[in-house]
Amino acid sequence: MLELEDVHTYYGTSHILQGVSFRVPAGKSTVLLGRNGAGKTTTIHTICGLLRCRQGRIRFLDTDIQNLPAHRISQLGMGLVPQGRRIFPSLTIRENLTMSARPNPFTGTKDWDLERVYELFPILKEREKNQGTQLSGGQQQMLAIARALMTNPHLLLMDEPSEGLAPVVIDQIGDILEHLKQTGLAILVVEQNLDLALRTADEIMIMNKGNIVWQGTPEQLATSDDVRHKYLGV
Ligand SMILES: Nc1ncnc2c1ncn2[C@@H]1O[C@H](COP(=O)(O)OP(=O)(O)OP(=O)(O)O)[C@@H](O)[C@H]1O
Questions:
Q1: I need a surface site. Which of 56, 107, 188, 207 has the fewest CB within 10 A?
Q2: Which residue range is the domain that position 100 belongs to?
């Protein structure tokens, strides 16, 4: 589905991603954990074309995407739920959703349409005439996920979906991630929240100082006290 091979990304002369390699398999949920500043958002932005890597290869489905602009990568079937939600404040909830609607680029199908996202997120239907900014943080996160689903992606990238949310809302986001996993969607989530990762991931990777330093299952991480302590501080 997605494969990074020896990816190096810089901000000016700062060498941030220092040879990152990993795979995100089809139909699985992969979570990238790491402390503040580890390079998680830089990884997401490099994958979706908002940042250009200086070295390395990124393959999505059967296409090399490392030199493609962000809009072309998105059109190949990659949906982004950005850090901080980035809801369009002057649009209604319905408009936030319909403006991104499009069929899957390969199958032409619209499995995700307004009706189906409203079924998954009833609160968005109830408040469809409200502006995006009138929603709570958790509701905005749901809108950001729903908006990405409206593009009928093959792969969903999520950048810190639990950020700034209360534990009860993080639980709801966990339920949504589990539901999406069962639909067969491939998901790459960047997170700092260990519990959410342990609950929803098929595979977990840990990033530290721009490198992948550990990879394994949630069960392995749950029993690896030294790894959690060293790289996540818990
Ligand atoms: N625009 C930028 N210019 C220069 N350095 C940056 C820029 N954005 C991020 N960095 C640096 O790159 C490194 C990785 O940042 P990144 O945002 O990818 O980390 P992160 O793991 O997503 O952390 P966070 O949870 O804080 O978002 C950090 O040292 C950060 O200071």
A1: 107
A2: 26-38+77-232
